[in-house]
Amino acid sequence: xxxxxxxxxxxxxxxxxxxxxxxxxxxxxxxxxxxxxxxxxxxxxxxxxxxxxxxxxxxxxxxxxxxxxxxxxxxxxxxxxxxxxxxxxxxxxxxxxxxxxxxxxxxxxxxxxxxxxxxxxxxxxxxxxxxxxxxxxxxxxxxxxxxxxxxxxxxxxxxxxxxxxxxxxxxxxxxxxxxxxxxxxxxxxxxxxxxxxxxxxxxxxxxxxxxxxxxxxxxxxxxxxxxxxxxxxxxxxxxxxxxxxxxxx
Amino acid sequence: xxxxxxxxxxxxxxxxxxxxxxxxxxxxxxxxxxxxxxxxxxxxxxxxxxxxxxxxxxxxxxxxxxxxxxxxxxxxxxxxxxxxxxxxxxxxxxxxxxxxxxxxxxxxxxxxxxxxxxxxxxxxxxxxxxxxxxxxxxxxxxxxxxxxxxxxxxxxxxxxxxxxxxxxxxxxxxxxxxxxxxxxxxxxxxxxxxxxxxxxxxxxxxxxxxxxxxxxxxxxxxxxxxxxxxxxxxxxxxxxxxxxxxxxxxxxxxxxxxxxxxxxxxxxxxxxxxxxxxxxxxxxxxxxxxxxxxxxxxxxxxxxxxxxxxxxxxxxxxxxxxxxxxxxxxxxxxxxxxxxxxxxxxxxxxxxxxxxxxxxxxxxxxxxxxxxxxxxxxxxxxxxxxxxxxxxxxxxxxxxxxxxxxxxxxxxxxxxxxxxxxxxxxxxxxxxxxxxxxxxx
Lengths: 249, 441
Prior knowledge:
The structure holds 2 protein chains of 2 kinds.
Chain A: E1 2-8, H1 19-31, E2 35-41, E3 55-58, H2 63-86, E4 90-94, H3 96-100, E5 104-106, E6 112-114, E7 121-124, E8 133-141, E9 148-155, E10 158-161, E11 169-173, E12 183-184, E13 186-188, E14 191-194, H4 200-203, H5 205-220, H6 232-248
Parallel strand pairs in A: 1-2, 1-3, 3-4, 4-14, 5-7
Antiparallel strand pairs in A: 5-6, 7-10, 8-9, 8-11, 11-12, 13-14
Helix pairs in contact in A: 1-5
Chain B: H1 2-19, H2 28-36, H3 40-47, E1 52-57, H4 62-75, E2 80-82, H5 90-100, E3 111-115, H6 121-127, E4 132-135, H7 143-146, H8 149-161, E5 168-172, H9 176-183, E6 189-192, E7 221-227, E8 230-234, E9 245-246, H10 260-277, H11 281-287, E10 297-303, E11 306-311, H12 316-329, E12 335-340, E13 366-372, H13 376-384, H14 392-395, E14 396-398, H15 402-412, E15 418-423, H16 425-436
Parallel strand pairs in B: 1-3, 1-4, 2-3, 4-5, 5-6, 6-9, 11-15, 12-13, 12-15, 13-14
Antiparallel strand pairs in B: 7-8, 10-11
């Protein structure tokens, strides 16, 4: 079973340690007996590559890098990315990448930057006088309602979903999309958009395995047998975050 | 009157905190002085107009660079004082002034070197104009506290614009972000760097924070790389490249500090001593042989007849540099490594950055890796996900508690063994307290 993981713009969109998501996918692919090939998709690469992928991933970055990437998406790869997501490709888009896929991003100075309009949501930065939403976050996701998924968020923009039922998760602690409506991220077709860094996947193998299993299911119509996995360290790492939250409250 | 009272009260606090060994002496006196009189610093420097004030900032290397400048100036007979490490905000600076002044607020020493927090340089420059400013480098560090590197660069730009044209500014010319910053300032700036032959790498690693042209935003091309995004760069699209960078023949110099990052710290110190004090580079290099590192920076601590080698590792670039430094002086292939990862407030709460450190190369020289600290298990997972023939699960031992880990390490090692420790900031202080018994030497 061979699948391709397309990693968008790693040299630009890697400010927040999101490379860890690639590590986690590669590690779990091996455990599950999947041959995972990681392919980077950057400025000079042809957009046709996107259709050859089984999983897509993009991380977050600083404003300047995002601007560079946004140009390439708008003028070049965006249309293919949209088609791939609409066709049900498995994807993970974190923070800046998540915001890109919405309708628009309004910056702190009020400029509206149009997004790819794949997700029906918009993001607004309320300005310098409002704090960034920073800290540990715990959510309950659609993928497994009984387990808390943890991460770290750090974003100035507030994201609002058109349809709150599409949220990736419900906030247990932390801010989520906007700090108000308890929604976190979006889960649209087979693609996840989220504010969770940390990075997301290493501490939450349940999400990692879900992405891999979904990709195998789509490509080979095969279910992967569940086994007892050794994930003690991952669990303890997650507990360290949750315990902190319980301590404070 | 308030001015003198502040000094007397401050000195009393310093005295008491030394007697009772409580760690408040480095910030409290200044904190109170500024509370009584917000113009305390301005008045102080007016009274001590003879003082040459040097500010050193940047993400990594501040403490070592301050120590290098101080050491070399003292060797040449200058009387120098500095603020304590970690006390790098206004209150820390005010405190060190109180400590070094007499009861009339006068300081006899001639040179003050201040290590300044990279986020607050503007606040400091508002209070007094330094004669010299050194900016070492700019990497991402504690994104949740400081923000992204471009935010910091912008803050520095505004801070530098406040300076008088007489101020000597020294910037890292191998950092494209800082080089560009210097080019946008209306008065002359001096750049330090390394010779291209001394740069060890051909391409960029993953921990870079600035890899695009600051003029036209095309991806920068590097002829050679020192580490992270420091190197010999040029833009193939618009021709942006560095010119007029001062370098020194450091290749064959035997430094008491390993690692290429310390060569940059030394280059910064040398350029400042040449331009600001008319000293001779060759003579300075000769004087260096007895220099000993600041605490936690490649510091050796003997504990129960074992040698603990402390390599402060608090952000991705710093960690990669510590790994490279340790590999350069490791003697055998069966070493004990100890990584300590905290996420207390001075460390930054977010530990995502550990995924940008390249650990792979350590597995060929280790026997066991102990992992501890608040976020020990995050680090254990980080190591577990590496692809290596090294039996990870068996030889990585995560235990959150430091003292418990230490016990295990003592059992695992014998006398005269070396243990390589990679702590982040609060972890380094915590470990030193256990090994040395006190916070500071």
